[in-house]
Amino acid sequence: MLRMRRPTRARGWQSTFSGLTGLGLIAPFLVVAGVFILYPFVELLRTAFGEPDGFGNFSDFFHSPAARRTLWTTCLTSLIVTVIVVSVGAVLAWSLRATKSRLTRMAIALAVFVPLWMGAVMKIYVFTVLFERFGVVNRTLTWLGVIDEPMHLLRTQFAVVAGMVYQMLPYAVLPLYAVYVTIDMNLIQAAESMGASRTRALRDVVAPLALPGLLASTVIVYVICIGYYLTPVLLGGATAPFTASLIADDIFNLFEPAQAAVASVLLLVVAGLVILGGLRLVGKERMRRAIG
Amino acid sequence: MSSQRMRPPTGHRRGRLAALIALAMVATGAAACGGSDSGSGGDSKTLVVAGWGGSFTAANKEFFYDQFTKDTGIKVTIATPGGGFAAKVAAQRAGNNIEWDLLEAPGGDTSKLVLDGNLEKFPQSLIDTITPLVADGAIRPSASEPYYLDHGGTVNLIGCNTKLVKKCPTKPSEFFDVKNFPGTRGITANNPIFTSLFALEGDGVDPKQFFPVDVNRAMNALKKIKPNVQVWSTSPAQMQQAVVDGEVGIMQAPNTVLVSAKKQVPDLKLFWDGGLLFDEGWCVPKGAKNKTAAFEFVKWYAQHREAQAKFTEKIYSGTGGRDMQKYLSPDVLENLPINKTGVTLVDGKAGAKQQQELGKELREILVG
């Protein structure tokens, strides 16, 4: 029989680290968080409430119709994109989960993953080629006789929405798919065996189970959307900016850091409110589970 | 049984080791964040040039940057912010991180940069070397303030694609007359002075009365034409793309853009009447990491008038060299922006004083 020597107390294994060890392990995170999150955030607030007008910087911001319109456009366009992306994403993710055909699964997976692999500029350039005056869309519609004159598609809000939807789709599909795989498919069969139609089974059985995931995806997509910069600049042009391009304009063209900081704080507030709203609706635990 | 002899658990030691590694990482990270930036440049073997982009920068690369690298071994990296040089340099200085060593910037920006004290003064040795090689007055804004070297000029003029437009506007007042001259329009909006002065011209203001800019009048003219403007370009490359793709039939754009686009759009006609000429200049932002290399480039540029001639022949922009008529054909000379009738040389210094105000108002018109 093997005799085990009892470990001495000083060298013994402990399930918890000592305070110093714990502090040492968490130190890199604290430094990174301090340098890259906390310090910039404090600087941001200092600039927003600093020179030239302190709190008045915020009233200066809202005094400008351009700034007000930009903030409104950002929030509204992001909402439209979110609704489309989550709706389409929910269907795509469910198809990915439910289909038995390998071909369909591969096709959907490719459609979802390819945008993730492509560079942002490349993705936007694709839409430029599609939407330009004599681009693919206008040529096709003219050829089909749907329109007589080429439509104005590029540098419009429509182009921005289309570009953003394409880029954001994976951010809705992936978390939703992660939620759907936790749903037992037998539940649908059980509902159907009790007389429910497929639509009713999806509505009454799948939807309630997927709701936290849907809401979590909505929050993720919306919060990412409001920070968009490149797509509105390149597909929307100078007359359809997002708040991020307003911030860039304030810093790099007008050199008004206070106004840029105010716009950034407002974006943070919007994002914060959306996240809080999501948490309130879904609950902290379910939201955490839905995000994975 | 020796192989089964159990060694005392070393969890605590591993914990200490982990803590040590973590602390070392923190120390390394802190050093990287707060340490010196000696590795970030300043070796004078690289030169970061910021420019317009599009055909102007492409021609600079073809005739100057590539050859300069071959001759000196100094690698040139090109950044193309597309405009707004003065504000961007101010932002970089405020952030204590000057990213560019040399600018190919237009008059409005160079004047604003001088006004804000954001440029390096040319060293006396450089001035002594280049003075015999550059035209009188090419070191600007004045002999006592040697901050930038003339690099020709760009004219914002009217272009018209006759394939898309039946009746072309030939001057700014006709450009702004959307009723009698219908067609999709594009206006250059990457410099508020360019855009505002063009609007004033369109509203009938004589170029002699440009300054101080009547902001309300300029903005009202832009507001009126806005529904007919499809592209407000924020970079020359953007306008070039819009012209080549036929997105706009009538446009106000830099001559470099239009001359380049004409190769792909043979039906493009240029109208110089009411053209606004802004001088371009080579200047070095204050605190540039490789300012020695930047001044070396300025000297090299002045010493290579043949290269300047080839550059001029390519995009008709002009350069700052002395006696350039010896290097250029009469045809090229005749087509230089400065020699075109109806073209006005804009007072960049006067414009710089209102640049901020005009920038804000223009944004209100475009977005508000």
TrEMBL record, chain A:
Membrane-spanning segments: 20-42, 71-94, 106-131, 168-188, 209-230, 260-282
GO CC field: plasma membrane
Cleaved signal peptide residues: none
UniProt keyword annotation of Nucleotide-binding present: no
Record's keyword annotation contains Transmembrane: yes
Annotated keywords: Cell membrane, Membrane, Transmembrane, Transmembrane helix, Transport
Gene Ontology BP annotations: transmembrane transport
Membrane topology: Multi-pass membrane protein
PROSITE patterns: ABC_TM1
Compartments in which it is found: Cell membrane
Domain ABC transmembrane type-1: 71-277
Cross-referenced InterPro entries: MetI-like, MetI-like_sf
Family: Belongs to the binding-protein-dependent transport system permease family. CysTW subfamily.
UniProt-recorded name of the protein: ABC transporter permease
TrEMBL record, chain B:
Highest taxon in the source lineage: Bacteria
Keywords noted in UniProt: Periplasm, Signal, Transport
Pfam families for this protein: SBP_bac_8
Signal sequence range: 1-32
Entry annotated with the keyword Transport: yes
Key word Amino-acid biosynthesis present: no
Intracellular or extracellular location(s): Periplasm
Single GO cellular component term: outer membrane-bounded periplasmic space
PROSITE patterns: PROKAR_LIPOPROTEIN
One of the GO BP terms on file: thiamine transport
One GO molecular-function entry: thiamine binding
Record protein name field: Extracellular solute-binding protein
Organismal lineage: Bacteria, Bacillati, Actinomycetota, Actinomycetes, Streptosporangiales
